[in-house]
Amino acid sequence: MMPAARESLLDAAATALARRPWSAVRMVDVAAAAGVSRQTLYNEFGSKEGLARALVRRAADGYLAGVERALAAHTDPRDRLAATAEWTAAAARDSALVRAMLTGCWSERLPAPAPAAVRSASAVPAQRRADGPLPSPGDLVRLVRDRAVTALAGPAAATEDTADLTRSCELAVRLALSCVAAPPGEDGVAELVRGVLVRHLV
C-alpha cells in the first residue's frame, strides 16, 4: 500500500475516534471513510489492535517532530526550552492520544494498546515499527530531555559534562507535564519555564 493510503486510513480512524469511543469504532467504517476495502485495512494493520498501535505511534512521532521544531526555532537556550514546554502543553491539549501518552492516563474512550512489543507478522515496515514497543510517559520525558540536551550543547554534548544541562532540560519537560495536568494562569507555561530556568541556564 502507498504511504498516502496508510495515512488516509489513520486519518479516518482518528476522525472516528474523535466522534465515538474506540470500542465503537468499526474497521468497516474506517475502511469506507478512507475509500478502501476492509481487506486492505486488515492487510495494512493486521487487526484493530494493530490499527490502534499505529495510531498511537503516529501521535508519538508527531509530538516528537514538534519538539524538534520547537528546539530549532530559537537560539537562546531558555527560549528553546520554553518553546518545547509550550508545544508539549499545546499538543496534549489538542490531542487526547498525546495527552494519554504523556500522562499515562488512558480514558475508556481511547485505544490503550499494550506498551510492550507484540508479535508482528506484518510485511509492512511501518506496521512492524508500530508493533514494536510504544513509548511510556517516562520514555517520552527521556527522549525530549535528551533531544534538548543535544540541541543545546551541540557537538560539545559528546565531550563535556552535561549533567547540569540535562537536569535543566528534564526540569523543563516535567514542568510542561505539570501544566498538562493543571494548566497555568495568565503567564502560561513558557513564562513559567523561563522563570525557573533563569537560575539554571546561563
Description:
By secondary structure, this protein is mainly α. The chain has a domain at 61-110 and 135-197. It is 67% helix and 0% strand. It has ten helices and no strands. Helix 4 packs antiparallel against helix 5, helix 4 packs parallel to helix 8 (137-153) and helix 5 runs parallel beside helix 9 (163-181). The N and C termini lie far apart (50 Å).
Report the sheet with the most strands, covering strand number, pairing sense and barrel closure.
none
Our measurement of the CA-to-CA distance between the termini, rounded to an integer number of angstroms, reads: 50 Å
Q: Shape, please? A: elongated
Please mark out the parts with pLDDT under 50 across 5 or more consecutive residues, or reply none. none
Give the amount of beta strand, in percent.
under 5%
Let me know the average pLDDT. Answer: 90
Structural category is mainly alpha
Rg over CA atoms, rounded to whole Å, is: 19 Å
Tally of alpha and pi helices: 10
Q: Would you list the SSEs in sequence order as H and E?
A: HHHHHHHHHH
Q: Kindly state the percentage of residues in helix.
A: 55-70%
How many beta-strand runs? Answer: 0
